[in-house]
Amino acid sequence: MSGSGQSHKTSNQGFKASWVYAMAVGSAVGWGAFVLPYEWLLSSGLIAVVAGFVIGTLLVGVIAINYGYATRSLPVTGGGIAFALATFGRVHGFIAGWALMLGYMGIIALNASAVTLVLRLVIPDMMMQGALYEISGWTVYAPEVLVASLFLVGFAYLNIKNTAISGRVQVLAVVLMLLAVATVLFGTGIHYVTHQERLPLLPPDGVGFWSAVGAIVAFAPWAYVGFDGIPQLAGEFRFSANKIMRLLVGSIVSASFLYVAVILSAAFALGGQMASFAGSSWEIGHAISSVMGRFGLVLMVLSVSMGVLTGLNGFYVAASRVILTLSRSQMLPASLGRLHSIYGTPSYAFYVVMAVCLISPWFGRAALLWIVDMTSVGIAVTFFYTCACAYKLGRDGAVFGMSVQQKSNAQRIIGILGMVISVGFLLLLLLPNSAGALSLPSRYMLVLWVLLGILFYVVRRADLYRTSDAELRQVLFDQVY
Known about the structure:
mainly alpha; disordered N terminus
């Protein structure tokens, strides 16, 4: 395994529990949480939207329990990749890694583009000038390309140089976001109580209630993706892996609060006047500002800004660990797993993430959304692998790379339930007539992504199998002992 002399080491800085929690919450709650509720309320109604999120939270919660169990047993860097490899072997480890790498990078690119959307709202005259070209109905402006690129470079530099600063910034941003959203919910709630506005409770005519609920449930893997970044960092925890279950569940509950709080705030502010805000550049922001004044708009801009920046930072960290794990196992060139000689961070992995994502601002947000939509499939696939690993741990007490531990019938059942839920998420995305079915462009992108993965696997196969089981066990699972 040439070039991997230090690849089994992890960052010499490490992550505190509060940083890891903030990474998960900040990754799960991004731009969509503050923009999409208007569309959800319009197409599904408040009751169906809240019901869909409650059901989605419970379903993802089951998967989170499986993540917690698997991570506690295998507290190593790599998360879903390590779980898939340990349970099913190298081919499946590569599939999980390919899914996560593109999934995380797609969301990083989306968050970088969302930074420019926030600035479009705040300083539109400055951002929407110097038009370059149009892709799929979306005009690409020079200032937006520049700003998105600067943020991508800046967050790469921040994470390469100092894990502590990155973690502290993440915690501060998540706290600010929670406080701002709670204040908006309180303000719009007072308005609703005092004015007795009519709420958009039910789906529009012609839309079935459970169909509306299903569309929201199908969004759950995308809504909560980010909590699965916690296991990516398990080999670098400064705390016991026994805390992992509480961190995972806590991050999902916090993300669920943020989603539902924004949905309720939007419903309270919009009332029965949803049509009057149609066509606005940001329907929810304008509705809340009409109720709470400029203070409400400032809080919303603060919230969405923190959501975007925490997502960008959190997924940068998670994606770098995916590349680190793939390089350690020879699925990617070993050189990409090198750590910085001073900071001990996976600097080469950050460079790869940055280089790939720097292409995205030139494609425009409309085309980027096709890629991001299909990444939900990859996340759901990784959910399945993790639940399968947890099931096998419960049944046999061990997987490849670890000593035998106590078996658990309860975990075996939870693992089966998690696998069923994961398959359900996949069906919601892939079945043509499903409420959450992927668009045709996203399906084309998915096929292209699979074909590229097959090609890349063929190229790397010899290197992957040249590594013996003993070597693979040492570089990926040495932290277990």
